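Annex B. Sample input.
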Amino acid sequence: MNYAFTNGKILDGTKDMQVQTGLCILVQDGTITDIVPDTTDLAGYKTIDLQGRYIMPGLINMHVHLAGNGKPQKKQRDNEKLVKKIMRSSLTRAIAYKMVSGFAKDELLSGVTTIRTVGGLGSFDTRLRDEIAAGTKVGPRILAANEGISVPGGHMAGSVAIAAACIPEALAHLEQSKKEKVDLVKLMITGGVLDAKEKGVPGELKMSPDMVRAVCDKAHADGYIVSAHVESPEGVRVALENGVDSIEHGAKMDDAMIELFKERGAFLCTTISPALPYALFDRSITNATEVEQYNGNVVFEGIVDCSKKALANDIPVVLGNDVGCPWITQYDFWRELYYFHKYAGASNAFALYTATARSAELAGIGDITGSIEKGKAADLIVTAKNPLDDLRALRNVDMVVARGTIIDHPKIKKKKQVEAELDKFL
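Annex B, continued. Sample output.
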């Protein structure tokens, strides 16, 4: 069906966006065909009267793990053991795939029309990507990495990443990823908050520089960009010196790291959300150990510092909320924009630009989505209030449009405890 979105206040997703009124967005076959005055003859279109509400591009979440739901944990799980159990039979795999599909749908219903997955169960993410594109599943556009590459004892090894003991094993997995037609490659170069067993050592280097270099060289030759989990200055240095294109998370940044970012032409995917509970919640809430809370604070401060330094030095930044970590749900990406404003100092307009047009550009799909422009996909969301005034306007969207398909007043089941605790930091 052809649609005409009228009587709306348009935020087009561009860097200098301002509210535009008196215009009508025309959509045919899922594509924005024109933006015309509201007085235009709309014969042949179904008119969608936005009644003065705000319409903008759908959000783009650049760091997602579709295998997790963000449920708070009383103690650490053995993720490797859990994934082996989930993937051991056709029945359990079918149940897990249904769960993953449901989580992807939650992303869409919350206003996220594109996601970039950076570590998942087997080849679920590319399979779901293709089913959504074919219209047999409901969900956001997916850019998928499938399983990442880690090392024995490394971050997420054996769960959403394979454990490559040597370079040939890492390259063999890269070949398998090619067969699965992934969109990007993910490395787990350092440990994370919960991997560290002592205070002050989160983000310990796990993957050798030689392995990073070998994978990046081959991935680039095959036409892929490489993203990497990195949570220490040493990890950032190793990643950038050896060819990584996007640093996921980040760490406290010095002048040498700034120069490496610029020399490499790399970008930062900042993820303030996952470390915040470990750093700022009382341990009686998170059930974290003293060591985990200490290290959570180290990582939180490192990610915030990295974001601030990137903004100050014109290093491109995108946003992801590392969904799947405890307390981080598939429907709460809007909080990452809010934290980017609150902790990194980005304006509301720049945060919205970062999560729309800028992310699309850096993900390589800027010609397809990310802004309200003629020729782009009709990936849109509608809110009652103006997010340029307050990003919390994105918390509940009135309408989602995914490639021209309208979902009016989407409903999501939310976790009350998660909402209540995270709301204390708004």
